[in-house]
Amino acid sequence: MNSIIDRINQFDIILASRSSRRQALLRQLDIKFRVSALDIKEVFPDNIPVSEVAEYISNQKIAGYPENKIKDNSLIITADTIVTIDKIILGKPDNEKDAFQMLQMLSGRSHEVITGVSIKSLKHSSSFSSSTTVKFKNLTEQEINYYINQYQPFDKAGAYGIQEWIGKIGVESIEGSFYNVMGLPIQKLYLELCNFTN
Questions:
Q1: N or C end of the chain: which has fewer CB within 10 A?
Q2: Measured between alpha carbons, how far is 4 from 95 in angstroms, rounded to an integer?
Q3: Using CA atoms, how far apart are residues 156 and 176, in angstroms rounded to an integer?
Q4: Arithmetic mean of pLDDT, 154-165
Q5: What span, in angstroms and rounded, lies between the C-alpha atoms of 110 and 105?
Q6: Which entry of 80, 86, 98, 155 is annotated as an active-site residue?
Q7: Domains along the chain with CATH numbers
Q8: How far apart are CA 140 and CA 105, in angstroms?
Q9: Is 72 assigned a catalytic role?
């Protein structure tokens, strides 16, 4: 009898994301996939709740995947991650000053990291969000500057990667999925992929 991983791997799984972190996490599930990223503008209506933004953008990404590229055994996965504090969404910083301001805002406080994930085949589709609460200690200006200079976190929402130096010295507590903060809630994703094999 085939294992659940064998059944999942019968699909031609396409991860529509350039994120090296998402690719590494999906690989750690022993799932075979290929990458086919899309250039979709990450925009959303002003009137939707912050908690729904990541899933909305993820759904926009999967809706933008060309129908003629979806075959009988295709399974498309898209994702989007946001960092939010005081109902403000912190995107990717434009420069060092922007990154510094974001990390100062997160310093000594709790914030939410929300990842929306969408999955689509020719017959089925599903989407979900995962939320994690992260609390930073009070970060000194020297610590923030060191992290920005050494790690250049300009491709990361909220200007940080929890798996990097700043996470190791700065995170006091975390409630929810650690991997969600990295950009892919792989336990929930695994459960959803299992549903596609039924």
A1: N
A2: 44
A3: 19
A4: 95
A5: 10
A6: 80
A7: 4-196 (3.90.950.10)
A8: 12
A9: no
State how far the Cα of 95 lies from the Cα of 111, in Å rounded to an integer. 21
Q: What is the pLDDT of residue 64?
A: 87
pLDDT at 1 over 60: no
Element (H, E) at 188: helix 186-196
Decide if 192 contacts 117 (C-beta within 8 A). Answer: yes
> Which residue type occupies 2?
N
Retrieve residue 113's tokens.
């990291």
Q: Helices 141-151 and 96-106 meet at what angle, rounded to 10?
A: 130
Buried b (16+ CB within 10 A) or exposed e, 73-105: eebbbbbbbbbbbeeeebebbeebebbbebbeb
**Band (173; pLDDT cuts 50, 70, 90):** very high
